Amino acid sequence: MDYVPHTPEDQKKIMETVGIRTIDDLFTDIPEKYKLKNLLDLPSALSEQDVSALMKGIGNRNTIPPITLMGAGAYYHYIPAVVGHVISRSEFYTAYTPYQAEISQGILQAIYEYQTMIAKLTGMQVANASMYDGASAMAEAAVLAAKTLNRTRIVVIRSVHPEYRQVVKTYAWANGYEVIETPYEKSGRMNRDALLEAVDDRTAAVLLQSPNFFGIVEDIASIASDVHAKGALLVSGFTEATSLGILKPAGDMGADFVVGEGQAFGNPMNFGGPYLGIFAGTDKFLRKIPGRLAGATVDREGKRGFVLTLQTREQHIRREKATSNICSNEALCALAAGVYLVCLGKNLKKLAELNFQKAHYLKETLSGLTGWESVFSAPVYNEFVMRCPDPKTVNQKLENAGIIGGYELGKDYPDLKECLLFCATEMMTKDDIDRVVSIIMGS
Amino acid sequence: MDYVPHTPEDQKKIMETVGIRTIDDLFTDIPEKYKLKNLLDLPSALSEQDVSALMKGIGNRNTIPPITLMGAGAYYHYIPAVVGHVISRSEFYTAYTPYQAEISQGILQAIYEYQTMIAKLTGMQVANASMYDGASAMAEAAVLAAKTLNRTRIVVIRSVHPEYRQVVKTYAWANGYEVIETPYEKSGRMNRDALLEAVDDRTAAVLLQSPNFFGIVEDIASIASDVHAKGALLVSGFTEATSLGILKPAGDMGADFVVGEGQAFGNPMNFGGPYLGIFAGTDKFLRKIPGRLAGATVDREGKRGFVLTLQTREQHIRREKATSNICSNEALCALAAGVYLVCLGKNLKKLAELNFQKAHYLKETLSGLTGWESVFSAPVYNEFVMRCPDPKTVNQKLENAGIIGGYELGKDYPDLKECLLFCATEMMTKDDIDRVVSIIMGS
Amino acid sequence: MELIFEKSRPGRGATTIPRSDVPEVAAGSIIDKNLLREEVDLPEVAEVDLIRHYTQLSKRNFGVDVGFYPLGSCTMKYNPKINEDISRLPGFTSLHPYAPAEFSQGSLQLMYETRQYLSEIFGMADFALQPAAGAHGELTGIMVIKKFFEKKGEKRSQILIPDAAHGTNPASGALCGYQVVTVRSNSEGGVDIDHLRELMAEIVAGLMLTNPNTLGLFERNIEQVAEIVHSRGGFLYCDGANANAFMGKTRPGDLGFDVIQLNLHKTFSTPHGCGGPGSGPVGVGEKLVPHLPIPRIVKRGDSYDWDYDCPDSIGRVRAFYGNFNVMVKAYTYIRSLGPDGLKRASEIAVLNANYVKERLKPHYDLAYDRVCMHECVFSGNRQVKESGVHTSDIAKRLLDYGYHPPTIYFPMIVPEAIMIEPNETESKETLDAFCDTMIAIAHEAKENPDLVKSAPLTTPVRRLDDVKAAREPDVCWKGRM
Amino acid sequence: MELIFEKSRPGRGATTIPRSDVPEVAAGSIIDKNLLREEVDLPEVAEVDLIRHYTQLSKRNFGVDVGFYPLGSCTMKYNPKINEDISRLPGFTSLHPYAPAEFSQGSLQLMYETRQYLSEIFGMADFALQPAAGAHGELTGIMVIKKFFEKKGEKRSQILIPDAAHGTNPASGALCGYQVVTVRSNSEGGVDIDHLRELMAEIVAGLMLTNPNTLGLFERNIEQVAEIVHSRGGFLYCDGANANAFMGKTRPGDLGFDVIQLNLHKTFSTPHGCGGPGSGPVGVGEKLVPHLPIPRIVKRGDSYDWDYDCPDSIGRVRAFYGNFNVMVKAYTYIRSLGPDGLKRASEIAVLNANYVKERLKPHYDLAYDRVCMHECVFSGNRQVKESGVHTSDIAKRLLDYGYHPPTIYFPMIVPEAIMIEPNETESKETLDAFCDTMIAIAHEAKENPDLVKSAPLTTPVRRLDDVKAAREPDVCWKGRM
Ligand SMILES: Cc1ncc(COP(=O)(O)O)c(C=O)c1O
Ligand SMILES: Cc1ncc(COP(=O)(O)O)c(C=O)c1O
Description:
Order of helices and strands of chain C: HHHHEHEHEHEHEHEHEEEHEEHHEEHHH
Strand content of chain C: 5-15%
Structural class of chain A: alpha/beta
Radius of gyration of chain A: 25 Å
Bound molecules: pyridoxal-5'-phosphate
Number of helices of chain C: 16
Oligomer: heterotetramer
Shape of chain C: globular
C-alpha cells in the first residue's frame, strides 16, 4: 500500500506539463553509475490488513508485566483518559512546528500554558517548550553554562542517573570540557565538602538530581550559595517528575536551571521514548535558554495571541553562534504533559503523596525480609535502594513470574553490588507487594 | 468521581438565586413517603484509575479467539484504521441527532453520502439514515407493508435468520398480523411453489434473505413478478453486507425493500451491538419509509446544505399515525459504515471475492473430512452448512483450542440436527484452516 | 463543501485487499452470472482525501465537547473519556455474540450487573437490556403489557397518553395495536386527574406517563394517578427519558410505576453519536418479568449463562442482546459515580435547571411557574407578540453565539416552546454566560428583530430551506462519479 | 481565547486520586519540612472544561489532516492512520526500557530490523537509532567523525558547510567544537567546487552536505565533491532531511557519503506532533561503525539482546534507546510500502515538485531554473519590486485560502525565498488548486497589494506582533488563579 493518489491519467497529464517522457528524466542529475538498477532488497509491500497482523505479532513478542518494580528514569503511572483524547486530535499531531502563528494558536497557547505550569512547579521564571529528554536537557544546561561563563569544567555528583552522566560526558567531550564526578555520602546524599572542593573558578556548573538516582531527596539549598560564590551555576535535575508535587521547587532553593525527564507527566513508558526534557531557568537566562519558546503578544487588532519568540537564540538565525542546535523538540509529549498537569491540578500533590506511601510500604516490607536491608538512611520519594542476597536471582525469580524487578546498581556502582533500586508508584497495590514478597521468598 | 464542576461557593450562590436553603427544597413535589432516605445500594464510587483497572479485569474475563468460524448474522472483518479515527472525532460522537442543521452539516452530509452509497449497493432509489439492526429493519418493513397495503399477512421463508423471524413475529403479533413460514427446498434455496402458494390477497409482504441464513444466494427475480401479481411487496434481506460487493442488487431483481444488517461495514462485533439496520426502498415509498432521512437543500444564499427532511413521516409530528416509532437510530454506526464504504470503494468487490474464496476453500477442506458433507447444493457466498458426526464435540474441541466453532443449526431446524453453519471471511488464513482441520481430526 | 462522490477519481483507492492465500475460484464459476453484479459504484479516493473529507465535515459539526448543549429532553451531559476508552478495549469490541458462554463471562457479568444496578436505582424487579433506544424500549414495554393481558385472556384496546407526551409514546402505543387516547394536562402542567378518571376504563391497558414530564415538572398527584390506573387493572408506564431528575431521590417502582424504559444515552452519559447508538433498557415489576424479551442472563454460582426458555416472553425485538457496547459505558459510569455520585448528579441537574429558570424568567414567558426538575420550559410568545421574532429565530441566533440551542416547539402544548436542560456537568460560569446570551437575544429581539430573524450569520451555511428539502426531496445523490 | 488558568476555580478538579491501600505515612514525618512544598499552583478545572479547552485549541490549529501543507524541507506527507493505531498498541507503549531482553524481543526485533532496512535504503553499513531528531542526529554524526580522528590521533578543527545549509548544520558543527567554515554555492545552486577545493585542507574534518540541497537540487558534482573531501582524509556528511527525493533511485552510501542522518518524521511519514517527537537515526560507513552510540542491539540466533561493550563509542546522546514509538510508525510505513512503494513515493514527490515549479514559473521568480527534486524554491523578489508585497505577505494571504504556506526566507541565499515541497501523497487536483491560488495571489499582489499585506483576514487572530513578543517577552503567565 503506497499512499500515492495519482491515477495513470493524472501522471500522464503531469508529466506532459513538466515536459518529460519518463520519470527518470527527472533524475538525470544522479551520476549514471550510482542510479539503482534494481529494487531495494526489502520485504515486499503489504496491505493494511496484512501489516496490521504483522505488527500485532511483533507487539505480542513483548511481555507486558502486571507489576513493575523498575523506575530508574522511566515511570509507570496512570495516564488519565483525557490525555490520549487530546493528543489524538489530528489538528495537533499532524502539524509541524508552529511557524505560522495565525493558524497555530492551538499549540502555541497550549505550550505557553505548559511553560507556565513547568515554571510554577520548578520555581523558575522561564521554561521552554521541551528538550529531547531529561538527560540531553541536563547536558545542554551544562554546555549553556560553560558557554555563557566561558568556563570549561562541569561537576556532577555520582548520584545522578548513570546514563545522564554519560550524556553529559559525551556533550562535554565534544566541546572540550572536563567533567568531574564527586561522591555521595553514606546516607546517599551528596558529599557536600567533596563537591564544593571540586568547584573552582574553572567550574561552569554543578549538576545534581533531587530526587537523585537512589530516590533520595537532596538539600539543594545547602550548597547553592557556595556554588554561586565560586561563580558557578547550579543545575538541579530530578529523576521523577511527579516528585515535584511534594518537593520544594529547586528554584526556591537557589538553582539556576531545573532540568529533568517529564515522561511521568502523562506519557507512556514507550520502551524509552519519546519522552520530553523539562528545561527551566531564571529570568537571567531568558535570552540564552535553548529550544522553542512560546510567547504572548497581540495581533493587529490588539487581540491576545501567541508566537514562537526570541528566535534569535536559535540555530536557524544564529547558526554556529546558537547555544544549542535543537530544532524539533518533543512538542506532542509536552502537550500530553500539559494536559496531564491540568487534569491533575492540585491533586498532583495527593498523587505524589500516594507514590511516597506505596514506596515506603514496599521499602518497609522488603526490609523485613531476612538478609535484606535498606542501604541509605536519607529520605526518599518513590524509589529506594536495598541490599539483598543475590540480586540477580531475585530479579530472575520475579522475571519468571512475568514481573520486572529492580535495577541492578552493581553495573554502575561497584560499591553497590548486591544492591537493587526499587520503585513503587500509585499503580502498585498492596496485593502486588504481597505477591512480590511471596515470589522472592519462594524457591 | 462524579463530573459535577460546582464548588461549594458556586452551589451556595446558585441556591441563593434560586431561593432555596437546601437542595431538598427542590424535590418537594415528590410525595414524602417515596423520598429515598438512604443511599442506593450500589458499589461505592471509584476513581478513574480504579474504575479503569476494574473494567480491564472484566474485559479480560472474555476470551477473544484467534480464529472464528461463526458468522450467522455477525461477521468478523478487518476494519481499516481510518474508520476508528473518523468516528472518534468528538464533534461526531458527542453530538445529538442533527436537529439544528446549520451546526450539523458534518453529519448531515455524511449521512446523505451514506444513504447514497446504500442505495447504489442495494439498487434502490431511497435509503434511510439507519434502523436499529437488520432484524428490526426487516420487521419494520413488514409492518410498513401491512399498514400501507392494509393487509394482515406476512410470509417469511424459513431460511431467514431465526432471530430475524422471531423479531418479525413479535412485531406482527403486536399489530395483530399473521406470519406464515414457508420451507426451503433440498438445495437450500426457497421453495418457490410453496412460497407463491402462501401468498394470497391478504399477504402484505414476502420476506427473504439473499444470502440466506445458510449462506445461499437466492434467485429473487424468479418470484418478484408473481409476488407483485398478488399485490404483495417483496422485502429482500441479506445476512452479510459485504455480499453486496458481488451479488446483483435486489433492487435490480424486483425487490420493493432491501433490508439487512450493516455491521460488516466497519463496525466491530461488539458482542451483538451496536449495529445498524440498512433500510432501502423504491421511490414509491419515499414518503412512507421509517426513520431519519438526510436531504439536500439550499441556504438563504443558495448554497448547498443538508437537513433532516420529510419529517412529517415521523413520530414527533405524526405521533400515533406515524408508520414507525423510531427516533434515535444508529447514526455513528452508519457513519462508520459510510467511512468503510468510501475506504473500500470499488475494492468492496475484491473483498467480497476474497471472502467467497476463503469460504469455498474452507468448505472444500471440511468436505474432505471423513463423515463430513456439504448439506446444500445451491451456491453460497461466505457461509455454508455442513453435516458432520457429532457437531457438539466438534465445537467443544475447537472451543478447547480457544476457537469459536460453527453455528449449531439443530436448535432452530430439527431437520438440520448434525449440521453446523460455518463462515470464513478475509480474516481467515490458510494456516487457520489447516489448524482448524487438525483440531477437528485430533482426539 | 464537495461531496465525497465529487472528489472521486477512477483508479484511486484508500486501501488494498490482501492477496488470497487460497486457490482462486471465480465467483462466476459457482454463482449464476445473472445473480452477480458488474461492479460497485462507490467513490474512489485516496486515504488522505478520505481523512480530509471527514475531518472537514467534523469541523462543521457541534458536539458536547465543543460547547454547551442544553437540548431539552436529551440530557446532553458531558461524556467522560474513560468510558470511551473502556468501551474500545478489544475484550469488549471483538467478541462474537454467539461466542460460547465460557468465552463471554466478562460481557455476561457486565450485562447481569447492569440489570441489577438499574433495578436498584429505579426500584424495579428486573430489567431487559435488548432495546436499542428509548422508543424501542417503549415499544418493548407496551408489548410486555399487551402480553400480560393476552395471557390473562383480557382484551384491552386502548392506551392513555398525556397531550404533553413525546411523539414516540403514541407512536409506540399505536405500533402495539393500541388505540391511543389523549389525556389532558391540567393548569399546573400535570395530568388532569378528572379527565384521567373519566378515560381510565377496563378497556384501557394503561397510562404512559413521562415523569418528570416533558415540561420538566414532577407529577404531584402521582399517587392518585397510580391509584386510578391500577384500580381499573391498568398498568402505569413510565417514560424514563427524564430519569436524570431523580436518581437517588425517589424510585419509579416505589411511586407505583409498573414499567419504565430508560435512555442510557441520556441519563447514563453514553454519547449520542449524532443520533445513536442509544440503549433503551426496560424495567418491570414482578408480575411482568415473565414477559420480558428473550434471552435472559442467569447466574449459576460464579458463572453466567443464557436462558432461552422463557415461554411467556414477548420474544425478541432485535437480534442478539442489545447495544452491548453502550452498556459498557453506562456500567463504567455507574461504577465511577457510585450511589452518592448518581444522587448528586440528579440534585445538581435539577438545581441548574431551576437556576436557569430563575435567571431567564424576567425575559421570557415561563410556561409553568413552579419548581422544575432537570429542565425548564419557556414560551417565545412574548417575543412573537413584541417583535415577531419566533422561537426558531432565537434558536438560530444562539448559533452565532456558539451555543447549541435548547429543544424548541416541544412539548407541543406550549406555544413557541423553548425547553432548556442544562445538566449537572455544566459550571456556573457556563450557565451564566448562556443566560446572559439568552437575555441579550431577548433585547436584540426588541431592538433589532431583523438581526435575529436573519440569524445565523456565522455558520458554514446560512438558514436552510426545509420546505424545498421536503417539496423536492433529494435524499440520494443522482450524479455520476 | 481564555487561558486554562483563567478558567480555573478553587475546588474544582478533573480527576480523583485512588484511596491508599497501604498505611498512610505523612511525607513530613520522613522528609525535612523545608524540603517540602506547600501546595502546587496548578489550575483547577472540571473534565468537561479541560476537554472543551483543548478541543477549542485544536480547532485553532492546522495539520496535514486539515489541508495541504507544502512546507519546504519538512516533508509534510500524509501520515497513514494504521501507523498511529499500531504505535498505540499496549505491546509497544507499555514496556519499561529496562525490561529484561526476554520481555522486549518484539521491540528489539523492530529496532534491529529498522536498522537493517535503513542501511539497505541508504547504502550504509549500519544505523544508530538513538538520536531524537534530525539535529540530534547531526550532532551524533559529527561526534562520530570527531571520535574517529581522536582515535587516530588526528587534530582536525574545522568543518565545512555550504552557505545554503540549514541552521542546524553549523550549530551542530559548533556544538562539536568545530570551527564552521562556509562553502559558497555556485551559479547553478550546487557546491562551488573551486571554493571547496581551496577550503578542504588537512585540518578539515569533513563537509556537511545536504543532498538534494535546500534548494531542492541534486548535487551534480557529487563525485568530485566526494573525491575532494576524501582525498584530504575528510568525511562526507549527508544531511538526509531531504531523503524523500531519492529512495530507491540512488543511495548516499554509494554516492560516497560516510555519514547520514535521517528525519523519520519527514521521509518516513511519522507525524510531527506540532514540533516533535521526531527521530534522527544516523547511518555510517564501515570504518565509523565502532563509534556509534551505545547500546547496540545484537542478534543471537532468533533472539535479540543489548550490547553495552563498545569501547570506541562516542557514548550516549540521550537516555535509553531513542524515540522508539516513532520507529514503530516508520517500521510500519516501510513494511506497508515495500521497495516499489518507497521508490514510487520518491518518484512522485519529485514529479509533483517539478509540476508545481512549472506551473508557478511564469508568475514567480524561480531561484534556479533546472529540474528540481522533491521541492522547488522561488523568490518573491518580483512581487517586492512590482508592488512591495513581501513573501511573508504572500504566506499570510495563503492562510485565507485555507493552505499552510510553504517555508519562507529559507534558504537564506535566496532573497524572499518561497520553498515549496508538495509531497507524493497529494493529488493533482490539490496541486492544481494550490497553484491556481498562488497565481491568484500573484495577481492580487499586482492589483490590490494592500489586501495581501493586510492578510490574514479569516484566521482566529490577525497578523501577530513578533517584535512586541521579543521586546517584551511573556513566556509564562504571571497572573493569579
Ligand atoms: C421524553 C422522550 N421519550 C422518548 C424519547 C425517545 O428516545 P430515543 O430517541 O432514544 O428513541 C425521547 C428522545 O428524545 C424523549 O425525549
Ligand atoms: C535540511 C534540514 N536539516 C535538519 C533539520 C533539523 O531536523 P529536526 O527538526 O528533526 O531536528 C531540518 C528541519 O527542518 C532540515 O530541514
